[in-house]
Design brief:
Layout: E1 9-12, H1 17-28, E2 32-37, H2 57-63, E3 67-70, H3 76-84, E4 87-89, H4 96-102, E5 107-112, H5 127-134, H6 154-177, E6 182-186, H7 187-193, H8 196-205, E7 218-223, E8 226-231, H9 237-243, H10 258-263, H11 265-276, H12 281-290, E9 295-297, H13 301-305, H14 308-312, E10 317-319, E11 322-324, E12 330-331, E13 374-378, H15 383-393, E14 397-402, H16 436-441, E15 445-449, H17 455-465, E16 470-473, H18 479-482, H19 487-493, E17 498-501, H20 518-524, H21 546-568, E18 572-575, H22 578-583, H23 587-596, E19 613-617, E20 624-628, H24 632-641, H25 646-649, H26 656-661, H27 663-674, H28 679-688, E21 692-695, H29 699-703, H30 706-710, E22 714-719, E23 723-728, E24 732-734, H31 752-759, H32 764-772
Parallel strand pairs: 1-2, 1-4, 2-3, 4-5, 5-6, 13-14, 13-16, 14-15, 16-17, 17-18
Antiparallel strand pairs: 6-24, 7-8, 8-9, 10-11, 12-18, 19-20, 20-21, 22-23
Helix pairs in contact: 1-6, 2-23, 5-7, 6-7, 6-21, 15-21
Length: 784
């Protein structure tokens, strides 16, 4: 079988990480992709880290599988490429709208940092700037210290995934309408979309989460060969103590109740630390995971190369004698096939493509790209619901299925209602319908409650499968099979069904049964080992950074399979191992560590390519500004704005190497200057001078952000139980078939009757039997 996208022709004119990653994903799944470069080559060719061969690992990672052409924009070759292409990925300065008008069959994709118009269109968008503005950075690091931006270029590459799935949605619509359109995605808006639950919480009740107030559920211990993160849910407390042979702590008054445990959290982890100090980190994780306690080792990037789990999954590939990361997601019917490594400059041959003319067709249903598709979600928490939410935003009908005895964990049913999670800090009678967490992720969906442990529940779901296109599941591997709902069973009902599972570690391999959350996936993916203060423990970022990334990757994988189905009529099974997908966001760093055996040591926000590159205190409590002088010109401009031009000539700071050698002194000088200033005004002043800077925004700042308002990021929606509130959106903008937020998240079981009557078209007598049985409910069972 060929690649899922082997009928597509893509031209990548972009000069951005997001654009080149977007196009790389097309190449992974069979599209013919040409990287059109200027005479001197793409700027990404010179971007660190550099390999032992002397070339850029960033370029290698983003451009494997492409061909390179040296093309002048405006030339005859340029026109031929565009006229014959299905997709063109553009730099931010190109005229996307005019090109779309000239080539109406073409899908024109324009990733950027801040877009070509509106507030911040001329801002410098370094990764630290994107993370500071998003609200993510505000959550990271220790209270009282500078917040941490993270590692790598994760916001830019995440926006590349968003651009890819937005492009696929436009192509899906194009097949029906015959018309192309423009797809725009900003990295800054994408970064904000990765962090919006806390923004939603602020909108609901004014809460501004501080690092001093983070709920304690996790901690870290140092084993003999590395750090382990342990996530302690209250309902797993006994299991944790039993697994560690510490049952005596159940009688210890300091730890007997959840509130007491949080008060004595450091003492608890000191006891656990003493117990596990001589253990292997992987052994400890295995013991805890067998007890269904979530835990993960903080793997260093170099450790991933020989990782037993990745090896068992045949993850690593080789191309042209060089190591290559495995696929971000696995389409079992149309697997990734890489034909070549990153191309030499100008080594490709100009294709003799026929001109791609627009075709006559029907308009997409309701003007949305995925209108007419139906999705079943067997999902919980963030990543799974996020994938369904993306598809619903783009027009699919998404049915969120829960069991009355196993509801979505983000309804917060397992603990006593905490006022901080609800509108106006009032849980209300139906608090499970008022949680900011659940309501942030389930916009545009229908709620249908089915107990899949009953035959009536399974039979009803099977009938739903027969009239659906996609089923998404993010429970542990094997759950669908236990329910008799594995892919082969579902395929026998609906031969062209696309079934997507989101196991953290994949469906095979020694760690496949491990449960995970965003923070523990960040540990397992090699990210946390690179994030932290010098000499400190690994850190995690955001409320749960890799969960929304997993949702984006899953939506991208599903759309890839749907494009293939649209072409061939064939469905397939889709596997989205979230840790493996996340590794692509730090692919160059992993490849570098694999070559050298050396791992970057955590060093706060400091990096080897810029100085200063850090967060500095500003006016107010725990208020910060991120400042990065990305080159010597920006450093001199910073000195001028500080009204200390002599610093540029100071021998301690006269070169990047000297500034890095004297970074403590430089940090103090800049901090003394920023400490009394307003972070927003100062950032705007620095950006106006051409210096990369941004306020480190908290949830209130993000909710009031003028750039996000200009992008239409927020939509006011009415919820029957939670009331009317603004809802954060998604960063994918299609010119002809735009996505939208049409209705608030559904109350529990709100659409039971609608599903039975309108979708399944059951007679009233059958509906009455199902509604009266244990298969369906309109409120969760006690303790669900």
């Amino acid at each position: 079988m060929g690649g899922a996208l082997d009928h597509l022709r893509v031209v990548d004119f972009s000069e951005s990480l997001a654009g080149q990653y977007c196009a790389r994903l097309f190449a992974d799944y069979g599209a013919a992709v040409f990287l059109a470069e200027p005479e001197g080559g793409s700027r990404i060719r010179g971007m660190a880290p550099m390999s032992e061969h002397g070339d850029s690992l960033q370029f290698f990672h983003l451009n494997t599988g492409k061909q390179s052409l040296v093309v002048d924009q405006g030339s005859a070759e340029f026109e031929r490429l565009l006229a014959g292409a299905d997709v063109a990925v553009l730099p931010v300065g190109a005229g996307a709208d005019s090109l779309s008008a000239k080539y109406p069959a073409l899908v024109v994709v324009q990733p950027s940092d801040f877009g070509a118009d509106g507030p911040r269109a001329d801002w410098q968008g370094a990764e630290i700037v994107l993370q500071a503005l998003s609200g993510m950075m505000h959550n990271n690091g220790a209270a009282g210290r500078e917040p941490l931006f993270g590692t790598g270029n994760r916001a830019s590459l995440a926006s590349g995934v968003a651009a890819y799935l937005g492009t696929l949605a436009a192509l899906f619509a194009q097949t029906r309408s015959g018309q192309g359109q423009v797809v725009k995605v900003d990295a800054a808006e994408t970064a904000a979309a990765m962090c919006f639950p806390y923004v939603m919480q602020h909108i609901y009740n004014g809460t501004v989460r501080q690092r001093t107030e983070q709920a304690v559920q996790a901690g870290q211990v140092l084993c003999r060969d590395g750090w382990v993160c342990i996530w302690i849910y209250n309902f797993r407390w006994h299991a944790l103590l039993q697994a560690l042979d510490l049952l005596e702590l159940e009688q210890d008054a300091r730890f007997a109740e959840p509130i007491a445990r949080r008060t004595h959290w450091d003492a608890l982890f000191a006891i656990i630390q003493a117990k596990v100090a001589q253990m292997s980190a992987e052994d400890l994780v295995d013991i805890l995971q067998r007890a269904q306690v979530i835990a993960a080792k903080a793997y260093r990037p170099s450790e991933l190369i020989e990782n037993r789990h990745l090896t068992a999954r045949n993850y690593w590939e080789e191309i042209d004698g060089r190591r290559l990361l495995g696929p971000a997601f696995r389409l079992h019917g149309t697997p990734r096939r890489i034909a070549s490594g990153a191309p030499a400059l100008g080594s490709g041959t100009l294709p003799a493509w026929p001109k791609h003319e627009p075709a006559a067709g029907e308009k997409p249903v309701d003007g949305s790209p995925l209108g007419g598709l139906r999705v079943i979600e067997l999902t919980t928490a963030w990543a799974g619901p996020m994938s369904g939410r993306v598809l619903a935003y783009l027009g699919a009908e998404s049915i969120h299925v829960e069991a009355p005895n196993r509801v979505n964990s983000w309804r917060l049913n397992k603990d006593a209602p905490n006022p901080v999670n609800f509108p106006d800090r009032q849980p209300g009678v139906r608090w499970y319908d008022r949680s900011f967490l659940f309501n942030s992720q389930n916009v545009n969906k229908l709620s249908c409650i089915l107990n899949l442990k009953t035959e009536e529940g399974r039979a009803t779901l099977r009938r739903l499968v027969a009239v659906s296109d996609v089923l998404i599941c993010n429970f542990r591997p094997g759950t669908l099979k236990k329910l008799g709902l594995d892919y082969d069973s579902l395929k026998s009902i609906k031969p062209d069904i696309v079934v997507a599972e989101l196991p953290a570690f994949g469906i095979s391999g020694p760690m496949s049964g491990y449960a995970a959350l965003g923070p523990t996936m960040e540990m397992a993916a090699g990210m946390s080992a690179m994030i932290g203060y010098p000499g400190g423990q690994p850190e995690v970022t955001g409320p749960s950074y890799l969960d929304p990334i997993g949702g984006f990757n899953a939506a991208a994988a599903i759309l890839t399979a749907l494009i293939h189905r649209q072409k061939t009529g064939e469905g397939q099974y889709v596997e989205v191992p979230q840790v493996e997908a996340a590794m692509h966001l730090i692919g160059p760093e992993i490849l570098k560590a694999g070559e050298t055996g050396d791992d970057p040591a955590p060093n706060g926000n400091r990096v080897n390519f810029a100085s200063p590159h850090d967060a500095f205190p500003t006016k107010g409590g725990d208020e910060w500004i991120a400042i990065a002088a990305l080159d010597e010109a920006q450093w001199k401009q910073l000195c001028a704005v500080m009204e200390q031009p002599q610093l540029a000539e100071d021998t301690r700071f006269s070169t990047l190497a000297r500034r890095r050698d004297n970074e403590d002194e430089l940090t103090q000088i800049i901090a003394d200057w920023t400490i009394g200033q307003d972070k927003h005004l100062l950032a705007a002043r620095l950006q106006a001078a051409g210096i990369a800077a941004a306020p480190v925004q908290n949830p209130k700042d993000v909710a009031e952000d003028p750039y996000l308002a200009h992008r239409g990021f927020f939509t006011e929606l009415d919820h029957p139980d939670a009331g009317r509130h603004r809802h954060p959106g998604l960063p994918i903008h299609l010119s002809a078939t735009p996505g939208s937020q049409r209705q608030a998240a559904p109350p529990f079981g709100w659409h039971n009757r609608y599903v039975l009557e309108n979708i399944l078209k059951m007679p009233p007598s059958v509906i009455a039997v199902i509604e009266a049985s244990d298969a369906m409910a309109t409120e969760p069972l006690e303790g669900a």
